[in-house]
Amino acid sequence: MQRKWAAPLALLAVTGSGLVLAPPAQAAHAPCTRVTIGSGWYGDNQARLQQLIDRYGSCNPHRPGRTKPVAVFDWDNTVVKNDVGDATMFWLLRNGRIRQPAAGDWSTTSRFLTPAATEALAEACGTLARPGSPLPTGTPAGAACADEINAVYGTAATRTGAAAFAGWDRRTTEPSYAWLPQLMQGWTAREVRGFAAAARTENLAAPVGATQRVGSGTATGWVRYYDQQKDLVKGLQKAGFDVWISSASPQPVVEVWAQGAGIRADHVIGIRNTTTHGGKFTTHLQGCGSVRDGADTMITYIDGKRCWINKEIFGVRGAAAEKVQPAARRQVFAAGDSDTDISFLRDATALRLVVNRNKNELMCRAYDNSDGRWIVNPMFIEPKKQKTDSYPCATSGYLDHDGTKGPVLRGDRSVVPDQTDSVY
């Protein structure tokens, strides 16, 4: 199928209700091939995505004066199955690439680490390496150290069950996610990209369902790209969309993986370390909005994703980046799989794709679909079975800044009723 445009249309703004178009120019425009979305989608999702491209896309996206519509994807379990941050952490532990912290003091690696976790890590990792030197976590002698690090990272608790982190804002950061780039202290971005590339090669080569030895235990040992999402990214780009990734995995790690989906490093927004004058990562993180560099309280997580998207994609500076922007300065399309994605998904003006992993707030909003712009798809590999009980939207589906639970509210402050899982 082909479209023939007598003249190009200059996009002035993208609004929640559609496009604002300038009058057509006088020069004739060559015909172009319609961009189509591939198969493998649930229900009418393929048709809804096709409608998005047909409405907002252009086969000639690089005309002067044209503002590209923006599409933003989460990464882990949205574009790929499994977590590339986890894959990198396991590789670092297996290959002894995590450094002993300054003075052997683990509290320097995260301002939110509890005394119980600090003591457990110091006891397990002891004097295995001098401060600043890599710990031998891939050897039998370092297995206990690897196990303790992996427990704190993976469960936010020590091996004895004590809470590993305390005192953080649940809507702007997740200290266990932030801890991975903080543990990369002492390495450069180029070196971390090398580690991530090695982990990527191993995880793509491993069969689906494979595990790997980490310390004295086992962990997931495989990752796969979702073909449908790679195809969607390609289609959006071909149709003239400006496609970005926003992820709560470390920046250089996602840069490596994003290349496999055709997304350049300069279109990746991950957790970003501050660096020394020599380019080595510190244990501190870059800030966004009103949060300064080194405060470590605003990563690409829930409201933090909104801030970083506004800052990096739309050029919003200062505290204003933490706020919802006018429709013309927001993404048209967004895709995610977790409550960590809820804010930037809600900001999308035209369509929001949710990959169903049974996350409470996200599924409450997606199934409620109060504005008709949400679509839900099962996971493309190993989809979850139907959730047997309802999502507790009316009582505890929302997690507040201080960790208290409450009802999920619509924009008009009405309560979202409990929802039944229907796309699985």
UniProtKB/TrEMBL annotation:
Pathway: Amino-acid biosynthesis; L-serine biosynthesis; L-serine from 3-phospho-D-glycerate: step 3/3. The keyword Metal-binding applies. Keywords: Amino-acid biosynthesis, Hydrolase, Magnesium, Metal-binding, Serine biosynthesis, Signal. Residues 404-424 are annotated as: Disordered. Its cofactor is Mg(2+). Residues 1-27 form the signal peptide. Pfam families: HAD. Residues 404-415 have a biased composition (Basic and acidic residues). This is phosphoserine phosphatase.
